[in-house]
């Protein structure tokens, strides 16, 4: 395995490393690779070289993985806080004698697979988010087909922007996550002061976006928009992802609504979709395109406005549906 690794191979390696370096399994993995236990109390944490031996013993890859690449991925896991480097053995430029441990904290457990996003990057973030985002369709006052994006928050409810469902009559039959659902336009709950709405559905239980905790946006944070923009010439709506940054974490609209600004592109149809940080937190919902002109001949660089996560959380609580969005506070 000396060529470029795809996401599946990297994900497999990271998952195996979490298991191998688990503090509760040190003794068991010593036995697996035939390594003698220390006679001085607790077993010694295992090394990257031990991990390579484990991969060989278990034959988890069709070919032996490149040792340098494995060492780099382990160091990446350390730099993002997933693994802890607890010492080094003999000098090694490759880092193969470094000792590591993995301990699943309550916070990491709460994040589920999203805890792996800082290691595996935006491609993995897209894979995790895709099942929990839906395309909400309907017709506007002119009879034109329009659409927006929604975020599945539990087995019966979809979170979106108020203007998405207020600017259209939502189609009574929708396809979400490969199944058919009934939507009663009159049962949609809209917040009166914030551009937030919750859509109840009838049908098979939806699968929510588990582990995607919400967190307040911070200026300079790298973010991604995910949603279903209208793209001419394509037969079906496709989920897209755009990269940008938070450019201002707290602004107010002319009507006094609390917003934040970001530079990741949000096209019509993205509204209601999440704005997600590079480490996998939902920092808000895409809401307003703030493109404008400085003057008649001077173009203004587009900025996009969203509803900050902390505002979304309180707005959903106000609707009284019993939905508790998981929010991560800064310390």
Entry keywords:
alpha+beta, 6-stranded antiparallel β-sheet, 6-stranded antiparallel barrel, 9 helices, 18 strands
Description:
This protein is of the alpha+beta class and 331 residues long. Helices cover 24% and strands 27% of the residues. It contains 9 helices and 18 strands. It has helices at 7-20, 26-32, 48-58, 67-79, 106-111, 117-120, 122-129, 162-166, 309-318, and strands at 84-88, 98-101, 133-139, 145-152, 157-160, 169-170, 173-176, 179-182, 189-190, 197-200, 222-227, 240-252, 258-262, 274-277, 282-289, 293-295, 298-299, 304-308. A 6-stranded antiparallel β-sheet has the order 6-3-4-5-10-9. Helix 1 (7-20) crosses helix 4 (67-79). The longest helix is centred in the N-terminal third of the chain and has 14 residues, at 7-20. The protein is elongated. 37% of the residues are buried.
């Amino acid at each position: 395995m000396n060529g470029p690794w795809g996401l599946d191979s990297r994900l497999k390696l990271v998952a195996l490393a979490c298991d191998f370096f688990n503090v509760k399994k040190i003794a068991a993995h010593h036995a697996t690779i035939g390594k003698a236990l220390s006679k001085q109390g607790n077993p010694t944490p295992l090394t990257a070289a031990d991990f390579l031996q484990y991969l060989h013993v278990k034959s988890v890859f069709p070919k032996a993985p490149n040792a340098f690449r494995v060492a780099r991925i382990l160091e990446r896991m350390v730099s993002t806080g997933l693994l802890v480097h607890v010492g080094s053995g003999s000098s090694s430029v490759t880092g193969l004698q470094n000792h590591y441990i993995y301990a699943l904290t309550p916070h990491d457990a709460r994040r589920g697979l999203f805890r792996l996003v800082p290691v595996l990057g935006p491609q993995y973030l897209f894979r995790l988010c895709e099942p929990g985002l839906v395309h909400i369709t309907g017709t506007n006052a002119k009879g034109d087909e329009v659409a927006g994006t929604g975020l599945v928050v539990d087995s019966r409810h979809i979170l979106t922007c108020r203007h998405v469902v207020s600017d259209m009559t939502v189609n009574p039959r929708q396809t979400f996550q490969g199944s058919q659902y009934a939507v009663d336009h009159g049962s949609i709950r809209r917040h009166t002061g914030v551009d937030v709405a919750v859509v109840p559905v009838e049908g098979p239980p939806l699968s929510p976006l588990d582990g995607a905790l919400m967190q307040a946006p911070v200026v300079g944070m790298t973010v991604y928009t995910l949603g279903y923009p209208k793209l001419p010439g394509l037969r079906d709506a496709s989920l897209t992802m755009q990269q940008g940054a938070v450019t201002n974490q707290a602004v107010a609209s002319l009507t006094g609504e609390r917003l934040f600004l970001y530079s990741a592109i949000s096209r019509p149809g993205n509204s209601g979709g999440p704005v997600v940080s590079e480490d996998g937190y939902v920092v808000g919902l895409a809401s307003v395109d703030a493109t404008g002109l400085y003057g008649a001949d001077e173009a203004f660089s587009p900025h996009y406005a969203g509803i900050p996560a902390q505002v979304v959380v309180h707005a959903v609580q106000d609707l009284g549906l019993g939905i508790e969005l998981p929010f991560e506070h800064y310390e």
